[in-house]
Design goal:
Layout lengths: L3 E7 L3 H12 L3 E7 L2 H10 L4 E4 L8 H11 L5 E5 L4 H10 L3 E4 L6 H32 L1 E7 L2 E5 L1 H7 L20 H14 L3 E8 L5 E12 L5 E10 L1 H31 L1 H27 L5 H29 L7 E4 H11 L1 H6 L3 E5 L6 E4 L1 H19 L8 E9 L3 E8 L6 H4 L17 H11 L3 E6 L5 E7 L7
Parallel strand pairs: 1-2, 1-3, 3-4, 4-5, 12-14
Antiparallel strand pairs: 6-7, 6-10, 8-9, 9-10, 11-13, 14-15, 15-17, 16-17
Length: about 500
Amino acid sequence: MTSLLRVLILEDDPNDAELIRRLLADQFVLEVTRVQSKEDFDSALKTERFDLILAECRLGSCDGLSALAVALDLCSGVPFIFVTGTAGEDLAIEGVKRGASDYVLKTRLTRLVPCVQRALREAAQLTALRRSQAYLAEAERQSHSGAFAFDANGSLYWSEGLYRIWGFDPGQGVPSRMWQRVHPDDWKRFRKVVPEALRNRRDFTIEFRIVLPDGTIKHVRSIGHPSYSDAGDFIELVGITTDVTEAKRAEEEHERLRQLEADFAHLNRVSVLGELTASLAHEILHPIASARNNARAGMRFLEMIPPNMHEVREALACVVKDADRGKDIVDRIREHIRKAPPRRERFDLNAAITEVVGMVQNAIDRSRVSVRISLLEEAAPVVGDRVQLQQVVLNLVLNALEAMSSLDDGPRQLFISTMASATAGIVFAVHDTGPGLAPEQIHRLFKPFYTTKPTGLGMGLSICRSIVDAHGGKLWAEPNDPRGAVFRFTLPATAQAS
């Protein structure tokens, strides 16, 4: 189906206008509007939309050049063709110089249809090009980017987005001294990248800063691709520059928040260990007392006549063993207290859980809680930060003990378990028989600064969830049957070592 062609004809001779209409009607479905004065021409362009304008150069009321000026102002994308007599040819040629699509002499109207077809085709191509340019400009605005191209003689092209990034005026043309806006600390690196890329015939990527005249500093990333002739000669380099200032700020803010979270986690560890002072003191005193007893036994064996050297050696070996045990306890406490960056290592989660239970044994005894532990028979290998994950286990166990300490009747039972899951990896769980959790509490437990304790900071469970999330797992809570609460977390399992 042929689309309708809306034609505006500026012609004071109705016979000529009809002849033009008939010639075009053989090739197009037409809707023709004829005007013969400048006023009517202006009015038609302001009130209607046309696909083609045909105009006589010499009219009694106006000339074709003034009509062309109006058309270029009101509808610059519409093809404008002069159809004139030989007397108007000079004006028509001048009109083409000023922006008309073409001209056809009335003595050679056989050229009219091919001329119109070509003008319409070129107008469609120009419209498509402008649409693509508009899409590109909008894409550059949305992505904060701009394109560039240069050859051995200098810059060939800067897009609108690139002018915006560097802070130059497009009206001044491609800047020749844009490098003066590169941050002084990045200048040496900046000036080396492109020559090295051209010398090695490879693409390049560089991030650097620019300083605008008002002192604004921007972080930008440039990517370039050079092209060469078959003979190996450099032709041009085309690339794109992206303003990554906001991304850099977001990255810095993320790092600041990560560090703040790490500080909170460290504070939480120190706070928890402070609560375990009595338990840890008992744990440390035990090997000290044992070493003291073994040392005294060794002294008695030395006082024998003759000295029992075999028993002395055994007593001293026990002293060394007790000292090593004490050192291990202190090292374990130091690991939890010291402020260190996260470490990713492969370890046995079951062994780590057993260590935590040993640390809180005194607190368990004081709370009069019976403990049942059911861990995977084989090792539970995971990859992550051992201290951080032990911190999660420690928090959950202490919370369970504290919840049950308020019970006046009923059993106080703590059940700690690990199990394998085909979909979730390794599942750790802490069951208690405390007062349990209200439904509205479950949804708020892991939010920062939410606490049910009179003196709590409300950061413990929030930190625990952040740690588990960072290890690719999930932490949640649910009611225990028939009473209490269950806290579970999952961790991706790793293959057993061969």
